[in-house]
Structures are given as structure tokens and as C-alpha cells.
Amino acid sequence: MGRPPCCDKANVKRGPWTAEEDAKILAYVASHGIGNWTLVPQKAGLNRCGKSCRLRWTNYLRPDLKHDNFTPQEEECILELHKTIGSRWSLIAKQLPGRTDNDVKNYWNTKLKKKLVNMGIDPVTHKPFAQVFAEYGKISGLSIQNARNHIHLPNNTTDMESNQFPFSNGTPHDKFMNDQLQLNYSTWDSKETLQTHSFTQVPPSTSCNGTVYTYSSSFSSVHSHVHTMPSSSSTSTWNEFILGHPFTSSGAEQKQGIFLSNSFQKENPSCGEVEEKQPVEEASAMDSFVDTILARDKQMLMDFPPLLDVYLDY
DNA sequence: AAGCAGATCAACCGCCCACCC
DNA sequence: GGGGTGGGCGGTTGATCTGCT
């Protein structure tokens, strides 16, 4: 038995708000303030769901909202924060005065995601597609070339033209990656060095109120990295490691209280709580995670030999 | 000018969590 | 401690706008 609906959906108005309804919300908030939204429709004389009233207020009517286009500086903030904490739109929006989570989310989905894709960067991981594909092979225990064979990375156009796509779990991200693979295969070459990207800090003239981050791409070789990971003798648990990892969303969430209040905010008091610029090593963070998973997997197989007979396919 | 496709964004949905009793 | 509730959140939908043919 689920939770009862917050209102009688059959008898409340839905869809676009009229100026008259907006005026009622504004008048109500002006005299009563914000809070107890379930009572707002009744008290304000609106035939709307309370939740809908709250959304209308927070996303549109709030006097402190900006309704103009996103600035390049705001864009850089969003990119940097999304790279660090993922699609935590409300957290990102809090760093952008006058913007709502809905604004940021829409801007990301309609503009920034495409922009990254055009740059050859996977908007989910913020890593070059080539690197993501390479890691897919790595997770499967395959070399890049074998990965290409295993997941049908394109040696030539025929694979792609025959619609054999590697990401086949049916998740939205898989579908997206397949789409991007299709879009990018013609220029991709596994022998080519992999593309990495990083933020370059530009002297603080404008900014997300201070520091400008230029999202740039460059071609370079991919290096393996030595990573910290929980050893079998470590007192920390695997779960703690994952939770504590700054580039997993949960880890970022845990740490946001720390990094969001540190140096960046000092330098950028209003845009504020953005992580200090990370150097190129950041791009390897996901490598670290993947490598660690693989190492742990290996350890498990050693600990539990019967599992050696089981084919583990991620 | 009409029709269509893609882009945009306001609004909704449903889940989750913190808070209160 | 546990259940109920309000509010917050991320994902999704769909109406409208815009540009192209």
C-alpha cells in the first residue's frame, strides 16, 4: 500500500499557470511567507496541488531568480560541479545565485550535454569516449584491441553500420553511449592516443564570480596511476573506500561539506562552494576506481577458488 | 505558407528523507 | 522507536517555440 496522494489529482487544475494564479501565490507569500504548502491552495484560493504551488514559486516566481541566459561563467561552474558531484542539480544550483535546480538541469540536458558530446567527452563520466570504451574493455579483462573485438568497437564502419553496439544493458546511459559511439566512430582510432581533458584556470577577471574555468581538451597518452586502495590488512572497509572516494557521487556527497567550504569559496564567495581546481590527475580518478574494483575482484577469486569457474561479466 | 523536426523549458511524477508526534 | 507527513530532489513528459525544407 503506497502513500496516499498529496491532493485529489482529479479535482485540481494542472498545466500552465495563469497570471492570475501567479498573482495569488505572490500575494499569499507576501502576507504569510513560505511554508506549509499543502495549505497554500486553500488559503490562497487556488485550485492547485500544494506541491505544484511550491514548484511554481521556487522555479519561477521567487523574486531572486534570474530569467536571463546562463553566462559562460555559470556554464563553467556547472561543468566543473557536474564533473565532481554528478547530477546533484540542487547542490549545483546553490552555487549559482538566482538559478534553480530545474534551470540547471534543463540547461545541462539541452545545451551542455551536447556541447561535451561534440567535444568527444562522455557527459556522464566527463571522460573522452575513447577512454570510456577502453575502460569497458579493461573491466572485461580485455586489452583495448580485444575490447574492440569483444564490444564491437569499430575497426571500420561496417561494424557500426550493422548496428552492433557494445553497451547493451539497456540502461539510459548504455543507450546514450551507443548513440555516441555511432556518432563518433568515424573519427575514433584506438591506436590514437586517448583524449584527456582538464580545466584550466584563467585569472579571475570575471567568473563564477571569481575564477574562470576553461573546459579544454587535448590529446595525450594515457598513463596508469598508482592508487590508494584498501589492502586486505587495512582496517578500513571496502564500503568506506567507495563512500570516501571523492569522485563517486556518494563520496563527493560526503566530502562536499569539506570541499565546498574550502578555498574556492574563499576566492569565490558568491559562486562560492566549488571545488578547488583539480589537476590532470583528476582524470585518472575513475581509473583508480576501476583498477581498485579489478584488484578486489582478483583478490576475491583467489580467496574463493570455486568462483574461478564462474565467468564474471560486468 | 504549411508541415515537420528538433530544441526548449515549465510542469509533473514518484521516490526519498528529515522531522514531528 | 515507529509511523505519518511535508518538503526536496532527480528524472521525465509534453506543450510550445523555432528553424528548416
Automatic annotation (TrEMBL):
Residue ranges of the Myb-like domain?
A: 9-61, 62-112
**Which part of the chain is the HTH myb-type domain?**
9-65, 66-116
Query: Quick check: keyword Lyase in the entry?
Result: no
Determine the domain of life of the protein's source: Eukaryota
What are the UniProt keywords, alphabetically?
A: DNA-binding, Nucleus, Repeat
| Leader sequence segment | none
Subcellular localization is given as: Nucleus
Q: What is its main location?
A: nucleus
User: What Pfam families does the entry give?
Assistant: Myb_DNA-binding
Q: Do you know which SUPFAM superfamilies this protein is assigned to? A: Homeodomain-like
What is the recorded name of this protein? Uncharacterized protein
